[in-house]
Amino acid sequence: MSTPAAIDGKEIFEMLREDLSAIEREFGRDTVSGVEAITEIGEYLRNGGGKRIRPALLLLAAKLFDYQGRGAVRLGAVVEIIHTATLVHDDIIDEAQTRRGRPAANTQWGNSKCVLAGDWLYMQAFKVAVQERNFRILDTLIDLTQQMVEGELLQMEQLGKLISLDDHFDLIFRKTACLFSVCMRMGAILGGATVEQEENLAQYGRDLGMAFQIVDDVLDLTASENILGKPVASDLREGKVTMALIHALERCTPAERNLIETVIRVRAFDGVTHQEILNVLNRYGSLDAAHTCAMQYADLARNAICSFPDSEIKRALLWAPDFVVAREK
């Protein structure tokens, strides 16, 4: 079967422009509360930017079946609200000072208000989703939120500890790839996909999400603070072990292993520099290995949708893995 030519990001944005604008308006309406602090925090978070890749995936999945209803816009806002709620809670747990180049919400309003605002956003997302009157959608969202909360708890238990690659992959599925998968699945449900089509799209989302997070973890180690919008090597400072570190730990000398273990255990660059860690990772090709793994997941994502007929939407979905792997922030 022939593969359609790729499509670039500008074309995809133009294709989705009206729907993404509608999602932004929906997001704005859905995060207004009678309590001023919730509205202020919601607006602050919405204006923080972000790629909106998750609602874009939902839109593309629905459009693959020529879905014309309003549900895709409504649920696109739902997944972005859920994603935003997770970021609020993550920043509180991680004691983050910045997010996307701005002060994190918890530094502006305090942890107590932000915890409750995050909870409110979760509940609001479900309130909006109920309007679809679709139990499959609700079941999918409930499973998603359970997976994400479990992922956060697992990560907290694993902070400062050396974990296996399997444990790491399970964690990034729960924290990131599961939401990508659910976006594709909900678009498929809206579009009336067959069971096989729905599972293929859910697999596409999972593999794309895995690639996204692996690249994110590499960028955390290698990109500049100006590009990241947060301090470099934040994950390492917080005691989080990512794929490149696991790769290096399996190959390095005892002295090099001690360097990495010290930062993970102490959760700070205390007597060990960021450059020293990068030198170890580069010596064993660990950053390249992680990037190669991300490309493999990108290939798996493309393969998951190879059975769908050629179309402009399929071309957009085939391009998305390239964007995820090649991005710089």
Description:
This protein is mostly helical and 329 residues long. The chain has a single domain (9-326), classed as Farnesyl Diphosphate Synthase (Orthogonal Bundle), CATH 1.10.600.10. It has 16 helices and 2 strands. The chain has helices at 9-30, 36-46, 53-63, 71-94, 105-109, 111-130, 135-158, 165-190, 195-222, 225-228, 234-237, 243-249, 254-266, 274-283, 286-304, 312-326; strands spanning 98-99, 102-103. Strands 1-2 form a two-stranded antiparallel ribbon. Strand 1 and strand 2 form a beta hairpin. Helix 1 (9-30) crosses helix 3 (53-63). It is globular, with a radius of gyration of 20 Å. It starts with 8 loop residues before the first helix and ends with a helix. The mean pLDDT is 93.
Count of individual helical segments? 16
What summary fits the major beta sheet?
2 strands, antiparallel
Which H/E pattern describes the elements?
A: HHHHEEHHHHHHHHHHHH
**Dominant shape:** globular
CATH-derived topology: Farnesyl Diphosphate Synthase
Strand content: under 5%
The CATH class designation is: Mainly Alpha
Question: Could you say which structural class the secondary elements and strand pairing correspond to?
Answer: mainly alpha
Mean pLDDT: 93
Rg calc? 20 Å
* Number of separate structural domains: 1
How are the strands of the largest sheet arranged? 1-2
Kindly report how far apart the N and C termini lie. Answer: 34 Å
Helix content: over 70%
How many runs of DSSP E, i.e. beta strands? 2
CATH superfamily descriptor: Farnesyl Diphosphate Synthase
